[in-house]
Structure formats: structure tokens, C-alpha cells
């Protein structure tokens, strides 16, 4: 564990918490890099999308949630959320690699991680498709009079889907305790925000429904944590929906198969975005404030990289599902014997 003797100046968090936040972000980055590596080795099939560059959003927001109680649902860029919520990283990695030790017995793959025990509701591949589902999850909490908050992450591209507006309407009409967290990473695959959104300030879309809405900086983990704490508390207290547009950026291609990002954005733009790297930013803040030395942070980097290496090797040792099980776990009550 890194030394953190001096209390940091001007930073609201304790040195221990700062190190914890740093470690969480670094872990996700190494985990995702390893997934990229596994994909290139042919060990991950289908589609795979990483959270590289967007770590501060998930880490900061997750800090505000009650573990094992609050609900989270997201789209296909879905490794980071369960990892942050307490899911077993081996089961997440094994699932991305299509192995039996994965959360969906290796049949869901990277886009379909699901961990009910930790209240992670997936992992969905249809753009916008999970937003009414998340709204239903929030409805269930309200119906059962449980004070669970549901965070429904969606992309800037997904924010244009018609069903999203229906969901806003119902959530506002029925006062559902849900946070629509739009992760605006400025792209929907290769389509830049300005080309897909008539008004690029996506937070404004909550306003016609009477949903409290705002835009926040998703590249600063300390800011996200502070904003998320306030928003989650407001939703739990008031039992109403909230829309937050979180500005972040993905450093990699849309998915692991996207090798052509220079067709839709410039190297200069990427370099500018790298200057806002949430991990580098927190590292600088910590070193400047005396909460950690560069050597402390390098040690954490090494530890997390090694931890991911072990997870990868264990996941890689897990077998693929047996072909005879192809119809198992697909539907709960349908089997080949039933003629389906
Ligand atoms: C209904 C539907 N249309 C199209 C696609 C293909 N598709 C996959 S991801 C994506 C872009 C979504 O972008 P965004 O919501 O901004 O999420 P991000 O990938 O940036 O996280 C598209 C068009 C799909 N999966 N589902
Ligand atoms: Mg996007």
C-alpha cells in the first residue's frame, strides 16, 4: 500500500480515499487493456468495448451508491460497472472470454455481464434498449417501497432513441427514483456528437419532462464523486428522477474491432483529450497535495497490473462451455425437449 503520510492540501478526500480512487481507476484501465490484448489474441469473440478514458465516471458515481442495495444498468460497455460494484473480476473476465466460469456461463460474452447479487442488471447490446428496463427496475423499487436508487447509464448516441423519451415521461409521471446518467463521450461509433444531436447539450432533454437535469465534468473523479453524492441523495430523498449528462471521452476505438478512428477524429484531438486523462489528473493532484509520491503511484500501478495478469490467467484456464449445453441457460423454462 502506498505511503500517504501528509494530509492533502485543498483536496476534500482523505489520503486513503484518494489512493483508493486512484487504485480503482488504474485497476479498470489495466483490466480493459488486458481485454484488448485477449481480443487481439483471438481469446475474445464477438463485440467488445472498453471503458478506457471513462474511468472517473464509473468510479466517482459508484462511490455514491449503497453496495448490494442500489441498482445499476448500462449498455454493452459494461465491464467497469460490475467490477466497481463488487462483482468477481475473474467471472467478468471469464465471461468476456466466453468461458464457463463467467457470469453467464460464457454464453453472454463481453456485452452481457449480469450480476443480480450485486444489483448489476447488465450489460445490453441494443442501443437504448436497456433504458425502459432500467426504468422498470426503478419502478420495482418504488412499488416495493424500497429506497433503492437506480442508475441507468446511457451513451450520447443512445440518448436519441425514441424509447428514451418515453422512459423520461414515465419516470417523471410516476416519480421514479432513477438517475439517467448520459455518458457523453462525444461519439456514437464513428458519428460525432454534432452530427447526431440536434442540440448537443443533452442534459436539456430532461427539462421538458420536469426532470431535474445538469451537466458535469466526467474526467475529474473528485468532482464526479461530489456531484454523484449530491444527486443520489436528492433522488433517494425526493423519490423523483434526475438526468445528469457526464462529459467524458473514450480513448480507444468504439469497440475492439474499430481500428479506423482516424477517419472520424484527429490525432490532435485525441492528444488534447489525453491531457484530461482522469488517472493522470488525479495522480498530479495527489502528488501536488503531498498525498502520495510518484513512486507510491507507480507501485500501485504495478500491483494492479499484476492483479489483472493473475485474473487473466485464471480466466484463460477456464474451459469453453460444452457444445451439449448450447440450449441451457438461454431461457429459464425452455429446453430442447420442449421443442423450442
Ligand atoms: C438499436 C441499435 N442500433 C444500432 C446499433 C449499433 N451500435 C452499436 S453501439 C452504437 C453507438 C452508440 O453510441 P453511444 O450511445 O454514444 O455509446 P458509446 O458506444 O459511445 O458508449 C451503435 C449505433 C445497435 N447496437 N443497436
Ligand atoms: Mg458515445
Compact description:
It contains 11 helices and 7 strands. The chain has 340 residues and is α/β, with parallel strands linked by helices. It is globular.
Task: Walk me through what this model shows.
This protein is an alpha/beta fold and 340 residues long. It has a domain at 46-279: Thiamin diphosphate (ThDP)-binding fold, Pyr/PP domains (Rossmann fold), CATH 3.40.50. The chain is built from 11 helices and 7 strands. It has helices at residues 15-40, 55-62, 80-85, 89-96, 130-143, 162-173, 193-196, 221-238, 267-274, 278-289, 294-317; strands at residues 71-73, 150-155, 178-184, 187-188, 191-192, 212-217, 242-247. α1 packs antiparallel against α10 and α1 packs across α11. It is globular, with a radius of gyration of 20 Å. The N and C termini lie far apart (54 Å). Thiamine diphosphate is lined by residues 77, 125-127, 155-158, 185, 187-189, 254.
Amino acid at each position: 500500500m502506498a505511503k500517504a503520510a501528509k494530509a492533502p492540501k485543498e483536496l476534500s478526500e482523505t489520503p486513503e480515499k484518494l489512493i483508493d480512487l486512484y487504485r480503482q481507476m488504474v485497476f479498470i484501465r489495466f483490466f480493459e487493456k488486458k481485454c484488448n490484448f485477449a481480443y487481439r489474441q483471438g481469446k475474445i469473440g464477438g463485440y467488445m468495448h472498453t471503458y478506457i478514458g471513462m474511468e472517473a465516471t464509473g468510479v466517482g458515481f459508484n462511490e455514491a451508491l449503497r453496495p448490494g442495495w442500489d441498482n445499476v444498468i448500462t449498455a454493452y460497455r459494461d465491464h467497469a460497472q460490475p467490477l466497481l460494484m463488487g462483482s468477481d473480476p475473474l467471472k467478468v473476465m471469464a465471461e468476456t472470454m466466453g468461458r464457463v466460469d463467467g457470469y453467464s456461463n460464457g454464453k453472454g460474452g463481453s456485452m452481457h455481464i449480469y450480476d443480480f447479487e450485486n444489483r448489476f442488471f447488465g450489460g445490453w447490446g441494443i442501443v437504448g434498449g436497456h433504458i425502459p428496463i432500467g426504468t422498470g427496475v426503478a419502478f420495482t423499487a418504488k412499488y416495493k417501497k424500497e429506497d433503492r436508487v437506480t442508475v441507468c447509464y446511457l451513451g450520447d448516441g443512445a440518448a436519441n432513441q425514441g424509447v428514451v423519451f418515453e422512459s423520461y415521461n414515465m419516470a417523471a409521471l410516476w416519480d421514479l427514483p432513477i438517475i439517467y446518467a448520459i455518458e457523453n463521450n462525444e461519439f456514437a461509433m464513428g458519428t460525432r456528437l454534432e452530427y447526431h444531436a440536434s442540440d448537443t447539450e443533452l442534459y436539456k432533454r430532461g427539462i421538458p419532462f420536469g426532470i431535474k437535469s445538469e451537466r458535469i465534468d466526467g474526467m475529474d473523479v473528485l468532482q464526479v464523486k461530489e456531484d454523484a453524492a449530491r444527486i443520489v441523495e436528492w433522488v433517494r430523498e425526493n423519490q423523483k428522477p434526475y438526468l445528469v449528462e457526464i462529459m467524458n471521452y473514450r480513448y480507444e476505438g468504439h469497440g475492439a474491432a474499430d481500428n479506423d478512428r482516424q477517419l472520424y477524429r484527429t490525432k490532435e484531438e485525441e492528444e488534447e483529450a489525453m491531457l484530461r486523462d482522469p488517472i493522470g489528473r488525479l495522480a498530479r493532484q495527489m502528488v501536488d497535495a503531498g498525498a502520495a509520491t510518484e513512486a507510491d503511484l507507480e507501485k500501485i500501478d504495478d500491483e494492479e497490473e499484476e492483479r489483472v495478469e493473475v485474473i487473466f490467467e485464471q480466466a484463460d484456464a477456464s474451459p469453453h462451455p460444452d457444445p451439449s449445453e448450447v440450449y441451457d441457460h438461454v431461457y429459464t423454462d425452455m429446453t430442447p425437449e420442449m421443442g423450442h
